[in-house]
Amino acid sequence: MTPEELKSVFKSFNKLNVLIIGDVMLDSYYWGNVSRISPEAPVPIVAVNRKESRMGGAGNVVINVQALGANPILCGIAGNDDNGDLLIKMLKDKNLPVDGIIRVKDRATTTKTRIISHTQHVVRIDEEIDEIIDEPVSEKLFLRIKEFVNVQKIDVIIFEDYDKGVISPSLIKEVTTLAKKKNIPVVVDPKKRNFGYYSNVTLFKPNLKELREGLNSTVDARDINSLNEAVEKLRKEQDIEIALVTLSELGVYVNSGKVKKIIPAVIRNIADVSGAGDSVISVAALCCALKLSPVYTAFLSNLAGGQVCEKAGVAPVNKEQLLEEALEYLKTFSGNL
Fold it and tell me: Which of 205, 240, 246, 265 has its CA 20 to 30 A from that of 275?
């Protein structure tokens, strides 16, 4: 790939419509200072001086896709509660459609509240119901997804699975069947519960822990033969076109049958790994929509995941910085791509 071709790829991101299906969450942050211990219990008292709420889970993929210039469409559920109202407001504030969100009575909007003193994470409070959603709600969600696919051009579908109950085996089958008919690539960021139900998909992106759990296998990330054996089994059993396994500081492993290799990570000053997987799947999905080769897809996704690890907290990928880095490392990696 030449520098001009790479620049053209990044321009083409702006033309893409991305349907994101999954567990959307609200990430709430309380920042403050600790100067004393509570007289009521041996716990620190955090004097809060700042609050912030952000979209998390599948919502963070939405933010990444939008930061890359593409048009994200989010399909998921939220409760009929204040946090659900806030989530809808956040989408509207970003000029994003909200009709893909099904509001569900008696189900809390998944919310993770983090209390932070200085830079120290003191405690996290989770509000969630992670049981699979009822079949009528799931069917309503699928009909909304089907409407999006039939009414407008969808270039790629992302399953962003956090095991919070939105994605079920039946929904996976319905969506993948629909995508197959419409010739839409499907990419998956899996978790353990539904790992084995994702079949006949374009790209499957577990991290090493998820791969080991999903296959009930001890895979050695430093042994290419161990990776080849495990991922070949996965690809054949679940009819997966491309497997992209993130390996933390080792980079990413890509296997498309013809290509089986590790793309090494760029050396960086790591501040926070939160949200790196969301950036990886976002870039990978856009690359699949543009039919880039598996190796270039892995190359760009790997850079994106590394980039956001240099920032404290969950932060989206920076498109201009990503292009700049990709151009810089293109020559370095070209012999291995």
Answer: 240
Structural domains of the chain, ranges and CATH numbers in brackets: 3-26+57-116+129-334 (3.40.1190.20)
**Pairwise CA distance, residues 77 & 325, whole Å:** 36
pTM over 0.85: yes
Backbone angles phi, psi at 56, to 5 degrees: -125, 180
Query: What DSSP line would sit under 85-99, residue for residue?
Result: HHHHHHHHHTT---T
Instruction: State residue 133's pLDDT score.
Output: 93
Low-confidence ranges of the chain (pLDDT < 50): 270-273, 309, 312
The yes-or-no answer on residue 278 being catalytic is: yes
Look at residue 54 and give its three-state secondary structure.
Answer: strand
What is the distance between the alpha carbons of residues 45 and 196, in angstroms, rounded to a whole number?
44
* pLDDT given at position 328: 82
The CA R_g of the chain, rounded to the nearest whole Å, is 20
Long-range interactions of 249-257: CB distance < 8 A, separation 24+ = 250/221, 250/222, 251/302, 252/280, 252/298, 252/301, 252/302, 252/305, 253/221, 253/227, 254/294, 254/295, 254/297, 254/298, 255/227, 255/228, 255/231, 256/294
pLDDT in tens, 308-337: 645 545 567 788 888 888 888 877 766 555
Catalytic residue among 81, 155, 161, 278: 278
Reading the block at residue 228, the tokens are 């080849």
